[in-house]
Amino acid sequence: MATRAKATPAKAAPKPRKATVAKVAAAKPAVVKQDSPKEAAPKTAAARRPAAKGGAGTGTMLGVAAAGLAAGLVANLGRKAAVQSPSLMAGDWFEALKLEHKVALGLLDQIAKTKDTQTAKRSMLLMQLKHALAKHAFTEENVIYPALREWGDKADADALNHEQGYHKQYLYELDGIDRASPEFVIKAADFRADLNAHITEEEEKIFPQIHAALSPEKNKALTAMANKEGFKLA
């Protein structure tokens, strides 16, 4: 009897191989990721710096302000040095005060020569007089009169200080008078007479005594102190 050949089972068809990740990725269309506005901005230091408002940065404005302040301080110091230089160049506190006395009396003499129509000139001269006497009084009241008391002449120091209070009263009253009024010149003349009496007493009686009594070293120290105080209000 003939034997039957065993049927060979059919092999299963091979499964299709999966595409590699690389091939799949290559097959897919590329998706371009757009940067957000923040990511798209350049990362340089200049780009990160906030934009200046009004065309000038804060640092620039501070620099300009500092430069302006420095220039103003230099100009102010220069003006003070110019105002104080005559007293400083005198080299001695007594000589410096005599020079300041002449300046004050000279300003009052100029006021006496003005006309009622010269209101601007009267105002300017009064302003200069107030400044000159303020600096002068500050020096005497803070240095010279205290030295006079220390030396032992308390009575004269107190009397001179009292008189200077009335000098300020004159300046106050002059400031309140109409510059076009004849009364302005009359009041200025009264002030000059009173100021001149005060100056004469200082220059001929009181200051020569203390100046002669103090040692050269003490007079030098007093001169330095007087210049320092005068510079504050120069």
Structure description:
With 234 residues, the chain is mainly alpha-helical. It has a domain at 82-233: nmb1532 protein domain like (Four Helix Bundle (Hemerythrin (Met), subunit A)). Helices cover 74% and strands 0% of the residues. The protein contains nine helices and no strands. The chain has helices at residues 21-27, 37-40, 45-48, 58-90, 93-112, 119-151, 154-175, 182-213, 216-233. The N and C termini lie far apart (148 Å). Residues 1-9, 18-28 and 36-41 have low confidence and may be disordered.
The percentage helix is over 70%
Q: What is the oligomeric state here?
A: single chain
Overall geometric form: flat
Structural class: mainly alpha
Reported by name, the CATH topology of the domain at 82-233 is Four Helix Bundle (Hemerythrin (Met), subunit A)
Radius of gyration: 46 Å
Mean pLDDT: 80
The residue ranges in which pLDDT falls below 50 over 5 or more consecutive positions are 1-9, 18-28, 36-41
User: Can you count the beta strands?
Assistant: 0
CATH architecture of the domain at 82-233: Up-down Bundle
Distance, first to last CA: 148 Å
Relevant CATH superfamily of the domain at 82-233: nmb1532 protein domain like
Binned strand content: under 5%
- Characterize the largest beta sheet: strand count, sense, and whether it forms a barrel: none
Task: Name the CATH class of the domain at 82-233.
Answer: Mainly Alpha
Element-level helix/strand string? HHHHHHHHH
Q: What is the number of helices?
A: 9
